[in-house]
Amino acid sequence: MTPTLVRQHPPRPGAVPRVDPRARARDWSEIQERMLVPLYEAVYERLDVGPATRLLGLGCGSGLALLMAAARGAAVTGVDTADDRLALARERLLPGERDAPARTGARIVHGSPVDTARADTPAYTVVTAFEPIGCLAGDAEGLVGLLTEAVPLAGRGAAVVLAGWGPPERCATASVLRVATELAEPLRGTGVWRPTDRDDLERVAARAGLRPDGSGRVACPFGYADADSAVRGLKSTGLFDPAITATDPAQVDKELAEALHPYQRPDGTVWMPNVFRYLVARTP
Questions:
Q1: pLDDT at 246
Q2: Cα dist. 89→22, 61, 248, 253, 273 in Å?
Q3: Which of 4-13, 178-187, 194-203 has the lowest mean pLDDT?
Q4: Is 110 exposed, middle or buried (0-12, 13-18, 19+ CB in 10 A)?
């Protein structure tokens, strides 16, 4: 969630990667990505996203947010560097095509925002960065880099949307994410989870030269069919990668399952209320 919004963490010296990126991408698209649908819907409704919209999605991942915007009539372009997630985005938005505009006018681009630039297309009217920041040390720096590239591609006064976790006391998942920090203690300072700061989004906007133009909060509960789905979904975010590197997958699964226990209902489902925040900013 390039610069990239998909989190990459340095391994320990001699460490062997223990994450299957293809399985991780599938878990993200099938389990976790839908948890942010209320955020996407709230933003699109507020900005009246529709046929007149040209939208650039930064860190588009497997493309659900793009698909929802395209369903409203928007011309959408998504960019990311996560190959396995982008493959799923192409399946959703470019069936039977590779890196070519489908009937919806959708484009999926591997690389950075500048790689989406084309002389024959008008400026973007909306830029979205939906992968929530404010939970990893250093994630703001990566987003500032992406925005620095994206802003010149947008029209004057275009909307730029940044998203972040809400206050920890309003996010049940925060207590579960603390497990990632505890297990990743040997890798302190290499992108582990941290509590959200209330001004994270405003600071990023200011550094990117954007003018704030309103914000909102959206309830995005995380609901899972069972504990196994919850573990897979949460691990697909990448927030537990430092813990996996510092310990081992089995240990992370065990600790994560224990942390989820208070949120498991009698029928086995897992339910964690959360609030996410978004900031609408404007280009110069």
A1: 82
A2: 13, 7, 30, 28, 27
A3: 4-13
A4: middle
Number of Cβ atoms within 10 Å of the Cβ of 14: 5
Strand pairing category for 54-58 and 270-272: unpaired
Q: Which whole-number Å values give the CA distances from 18 to 12, 46, 127, 208, in the listed order?
A: 12, 41, 34, 35
- Separation between Cα atoms, residue 14 and residue 26, nearest integer Å: 28
Determine whether 148 is exposed, middle or buried from the number of CB atoms within 10 Å of its CB (0-12, 13-18, 19+). middle
Spacing of C-alpha 279 from chain mean position: 15
- Domains delineated in the chain: 21-170+194-223+269-282 (3.40.50.150)
- List of E strands, the chain: 54-58, 75-80, 107-110, 124-133, 154-165, 211-219, 222-224, 270-272, 275-282
CB-count burial class (<10 Å; 0-12, 13-18, 19+) for 158:
buried
Place of tokens 């992406």: 146
CA distance 220 to 279: 16
**Torsion angles phi and psi, residue 180, rounded to 5:** -60, -40
- Stretch 4-30: mean pLDDT, rounded? 64
Tokens representing 181 are 């920090």
Longest CA–CA span in the chain (Å) reads 57
**Pair of tokens at residue 110:** 């591997």
The 10s digit of each residue's pLDDT in 219-277 is: 999 999 999 999 999 999 988 888 888 888 898 999 999 999 999 999 999 999 999 99
Task: Give the other-Cβ count within 10 Å of 160's Cβ.
Answer: 27
Spatial separation of the C-alpha atoms in residues 131 and 137, rounded to whole Å: 15
User: Can you name the residues that pair with 222 across neighbouring β-strands?
Assistant: 272
pLDDT at 75 over 70: yes
